[in-house]
Amino acid sequence: MRDDVTDDGPAGPAARRRSFLKYTGAVGAAAALPPVLAGCSAGPQSTNDTGDGGSGKDRTLTAVIGYGNDGSWDPTQTASAFAMAANNHVYEGLLDTDPISRTPYPALATGLPKDPNATTWRFALRPGATFHDGKPVTADDVVFVFDRILDPGTQTLAKGFFVSWLKEVGKVDARTVELRLRFPFPDGLARLTLAKIMPRHVFSRPGAWDDAIKGLAVGSGPYRQTAHHPKSNTTFEAFAAYNGPRRPAFRRMNWLTIVDAAPRVAKISGTGAGAQIADNIPYANVARLEQGGLKVGGGAGMNNLFLMFNTRHKPFDDVRVRQALHHAIDTEKMVRVALKGHGKPATSFLDEQNPGYRRARTVYDHDPEKARALLKAAGVEGLKVEILAVNVSWVVDCLPTVKSSWDAIGVETTLAPQETTAVFTKMDQKQDYQVVAAASNPNQFGLDADLIMHYNYGPGNLWMRYTRWADHPVAKALFRDMDRATREPDPARKKSMIQDYIDVVAEQAVLYPVVHNELMTAWDPRALSGIRPQPYPGLNLLQARWA
What we know:
It is a single chain. Residues about 1-50 have low confidence and may be disordered. The protein contains 19 helices and 18 strands. It has a domain at about 305-515: Roll (Dipeptide-binding Protein, domain 3). α1 runs antiparallel to α15 (about 420-430) and α11 packs antiparallel against α13 (about 370-375). The strands form four sheets. Strands 1, 7, 8, 9, 10, 11, 12, 13, 14, 15 and 16 form an eleven-stranded mixed beta sheet that branches. It is α+β, with helices and mostly antiparallel strands. β2 (about 95) and β3 form a beta hairpin. One of its GO terms (biological process) is peptide transport.
C-alpha cells in the first residue's frame, strides 16, 4: 500500500485503515483506529507445526494467538494484535514499556532522560546493538523512523501518537540522537515504545514498506523472525547477538494464528496439547481448562463493547435518544449471561483500572423508565433500529441483551452481525447506518488517558468521521478542551481536565462503551513460568521462562 496517497480511494488512508481494522485486536477483540478482528482461519496442520522440534530447554515454545497474522507488520502502521505482539519481540524502541504497568525502561537507549519535563531529550544508543542482519544500529536509523512518523505527507497510525507534541528528531553523532518537543510532555516517554527502530538500509529501499506490510521484520530485539506464513503461523529464534535488557529465554518460538475458538482451545488442551500458551480464551472454556491443569488468567482493561451512533441519521442527532438507548440496556444481565462475570458495566469511557479513571458525571445505569421518558421528551415514538454489529464471538453473545432491553422500551430492534471488514467498509464508503456495535481496546498502545481519548475523539479522527459528529458545536469545544489538556504541564491539573472532558463524552454518548470486559490467557504452568496475562490482545513473552 502506498503512503503518498491522500485521498480515500482504494489505496488511500481508508484502505489502510480497513486493514488496520480488519486485523487488530481493538475492534474485534481489540479495535483500531478502530482495531479489529478478522475472520481468518488457521492454516493447514502441517504448516501450523512449522518450527516444532527440540527437547528440554531447547524445545520450541508454541503459542496460539486468536487473531490473524496476515495484517500489516509495518510498526508505524499496524494495529494488528498478532503483529504488534510479535513486533515487541522483534523490534526495540529507544524506550520500551512493561507490558502490564507500561512503565518505560531503556531498550535501545542507555537510559531515561534525567528531566522528563524538559523540551529536549537526548539518548545515547546501546553499545554493540545490532540488527538481525548483523549491521549496527545507528542514529541514522532512529532519525529515519521518526522522520517517517512525523512526515506530513506520509499517513501512518503512529503519527497520531507523536505529532502533537514531538517537533523533530535529530542526529547528534553516530550513536546519539536528540528529540525536540513542542512543549513539556513526560507522558511521551512511554509512547516511545510505539516508534520501533527499523534499519534504514533495509526499509529505505524501493518497495520495502510494502514488504513490511506483508511481514518483513528486521529489528534489533531478542528474537528474529525466521518464517512467516500468512493465515497459518510465524516462527522466531533467539537472536544470539542481542545484548539488551530482555534476554531471550526460548531458543525457538512458533506462533500459530487460530481465530476460530474451538480449534484454538483444542490446541492447548488435553493430553495431546500442541501448544503451551494461548490468548483470547472464551469464557465458557475457562473452567474446563483449569480442571485440565492449565492456568487461566484475566486481564481487565479497556477492552469494551461500544455503541457508535450516526448523528446525521435522525433521531440519533438528539442526545436524549442516544442516552435513552444506553439507559435501556440491562448491563448487569449482559455481564452475568454473556460475559460469565468477566466484565463490568462502563462507569466512564476509561475502565476502572486506568490511572486516569474517575466515575463519569453521567453513568448509564439500567433505567427503563428514564429511557422511555427521554424518548418521549425527544418526541420519538415507534422507533425501529437496526444494529450493525461485528461478528466477534463475545460481542455476538452480548447482542441479545441489547435487543431484549430495547424491545422492552418499545424500540423494535433488529440485529445485523457481519464480518468486521464488511461493517467498516460500509463506514469507509460513508453508507448510511443507525447504530454500530463493536469492540475496542486501545490499551495495546498504552494506558495514558490522553492517548486513549485522542485515539477515539478528535477533529480528524476516523471514528468521528464515522459518527458524522466532528462539526457539532459541542464536539468543537470538546476538541479544544482535549488539546488544552494535552499541553497542561501540571499532572494533577491535566488529570482533572481530562476527567472533565470525559464527562462531556459520557453525556453525549456518540461513541461510548457499554461494558468493559476481561481478556483471558491460558498456559501450562508445568511448562512455563513468568506469564502475566495482559489486558489487551496478544502475548508478551519477554519475561517468560521454561518452568
